From TrEMBL:
The lineage of its organism: Bacteria, Pseudomonadati, Spirochaetota, Spirochaetia, Leptospirales. Residues 359-458 form the Clp ATPase C-terminal domain. Belongs to the ClpX chaperone family. HslU subfamily. Residues 240-274 form a coiled coil. One of its GO terms (molecular function) is peptidase activity. Gene3D superfamilies: 1.10.8.60, DNA helicase RuvA subunit, C-terminal domain, P-loop containing nucleotide triphosphate hydrolases. Its main location: cytoplasm. SUPFAM superfamilies: P-loop containing nucleoside triphosphate hydrolases (SSF52540). GO terms for biological process: proteolysis involved in protein catabolic process. It holds the Pfam family AAA. Keywords: ATP-binding, Chaperone, Coiled coil, Cytoplasm, Nucleotide-binding, Stress response. This is Heat shock protein HslVU, ATPase subunit HslU. It comes from Turneriella parva (strain ATCC BAA-1111 / DSM 21527 / NCTC 11395 / H) (Leptospira parva). InterPro entries: AAA+_ATPase, ATP-dep_Clp_protease_ClpX, ATPase_AAA_core, Clp_ATPase_C, HslU, P-loop_NTPase. It is found in: Cytoplasm.
């Protein structure tokens, strides 16, 4: 691969992001967990460094340093990985290790995670291609709409310029076209109906569903895709509005402008060099001293995952994908099992281990008000649409944080997710009857929180089910 081709994949996206800047970006969405942020920032930057090597003989020998995140639920493990991928515009999928089964059992095979990752890459690359060809597609769409409008008019019906004098038939056509063009761009013809040969998608789904066996979703999806490619798209004459025709024609023009082979090649290249697979609940497939479930071997699933992490080739309907340089981030609470309960070969493929800390009261306060997508800001925005003005006081943040911390200590510790439950209950009344609060200020201080949630918190049996 030429040096420039290799660098173009990731360098253009991340050249401005140094590890410290990546951490600062993550700080805008996730509170604390500095060790985990540093680990993923370095891992992401190392990908760019590898690509920057160009034709260096060691480039293909440098593999990503996969990461295991250890920590309770709701402390930011998934969010760190998701925000990292979004920042890099990289293909990302989150999977649960428990959804996969050992080869030989009915269920999803582990290679399907790579197929899903490629589909994510296809969507990302397609959006980029669509943006690149948007202007050309719009121009071609406009010309086809003008053709439809003019083909539906007789010579006598075609509009003429009032100032026009004798002209040839071609001149009349050009004048009519210009008049229709102005009306199109002015939005005056959106409801006008035209006769259009619209594509009619083939429908092999029914046959596939009849043939599919419960638990064989992966095979069903592949059959759907295969039959979708084989069956030709039929067309039918029907009358549609200009607004409808524009959407259909625009999509057709995009399909013609986009080189599907180049799209697939770029998606595969992006998957192989920038893809991130987040495997959650990996602790639940640990062997735990050999005490596995009777029907599915935990160790078997680990051994099936191992080749992907080590580096292998997965065949997909769009081409072969090599997993050698895909970044794998695994996560688990590891309350019962330990990382050392994973098979040694798999442990060795996750050399970086970071422990995420449980959240304290101060963390909950920060989560409520500091991030760009803070929960407090979300509820303010939602209820502002009903003309309800939510105002948070520091004492209100502290009261909510104390309740979250107490509920997590008393019941199952679900981390920051507890805040969602508490705030939903806290704003139940203005959310259900916003007209009673319209035009008013709802001040969320300690007294407000106590009045709305105090009785529930005191009643331990009730709080277990509500908060």
């Amino acid at each position: 691969m030429p040096k420039s081709a290799g660098r173009s994949i990731l360098t253009e996206m991340l050249s401005e992001f140094k590890p410290t800047e990546i951490v600062r970006h993550l700080d805008g969405f996730i509170i604390g967990q500095a060790d985990a942020k540093r680990a993923v920032a370095i891992a992401l930057r190392n990908r760019e460094r590898r690509l920057a090597l160009g034709e260096h003989p060691l480039r293909e020998e440098i593999h990503p340093k996969n990461i295991i995140m250890i920590g309770p639920t709701g402390v930011g493990k998934t969010e760190i990985a998701r925000r990292l991928a979004k920042m890099a515009n990289a293909p990302f999928i989150k999977v649960e290790a428990t959804k996969y089964t050992e080869v030989g059992y009915v269920g999803r095979d582990v290679e399907s995670m790579i197929r899903d990752l490629l589909m994510t890459a296809m969507k990302i690359v397609r959006q980029e291609f669509e943006e690149r060809y948007k202007e050309d597609a719009e121009k071609r769409t406009e010309e086809r709409l003008l053709d439809l409008l003019l083909s539906g008019k007789s010579a006598a019906e075609k509009p003429k310029d009032e100032n026009a004098v004798t002209s040839t038939e071609d001149d009349d056509e050009a004048i009519a076209r210009d008049i229709f063009r102005k009306k199109l761009r002015g939005g005056k013809l959106e409801d006008r109906e035209v006769e259009f040969r619209a594509p009619q998608a083939a429908s092999p789904q029914v046959a596939v569903q009849m043939m599919a066996i419960p638990g064989m979703e992966e095979i069903e999806n592949q059959m759907q895709n295969m039959l979708g490619d084989i069956f030709p798209k039929k067309r039918e004459n029907r009358k549609v509005s200009i607004a409808q025709a524009r959407k259909l024609i625009y999509q057709e023009e995009l399909e013609q402008l986009i080189d599907q082979e180049k799209l697939k090649e770029e998606a595969i290249r992006r998957t192989e060099n920038t893809g991130i697979v987040f495997i959650d609940e990996i602790d639940k497939i640990a062997s735990r001293g050999g005490k596995g479930s009777p029907d599915v071997s935990r160790e078997g699933v680990q051994r099936d995952i191992l080749p992907l992490v080590e580096g292998s080739t997965v065949n997909t309907r769009h081409g072969a994908v090599k997993t050698d340089h895909i970044l794998f981030i695994a996560a688990g609470a590891f309350h019962i099992a330990a990382v050392t309960d994973l098979i040694p070969e798999l442990q060795g493929r996750f050399p970086i281990r970071v422990e995420l800390k449980p959240l304290n009261k101060e963390d909950y306060v920060s989560i409520l008000k500091t991030p760009k997508n803070a929960l407090a800001k979300q509820y303010q925005a939602l209820l502002s649409t009903e003309n309800v003005n939510i105002q948070f006081e520091n004492s209100g943040f502290e009261a909510i944080a104390e309740i979250a911390y107490e509920m997590n200590s008393r019941n199952e510790n679900i981390g920051a997710r507890r805040l969602h439950t508490i705030l939903e209950k806290l704003f139940e009344k203005p959310s259900f009857e916003p007209e009673k609060y319209s035009g008013k200020d709802v001040v969320v201080d300690r007294n407000f929180v106590t009045s709305e949630l105090g009785d529930i918190v005191k009643n331990q049996d009730l709080s277990r089910f509500i908060l």
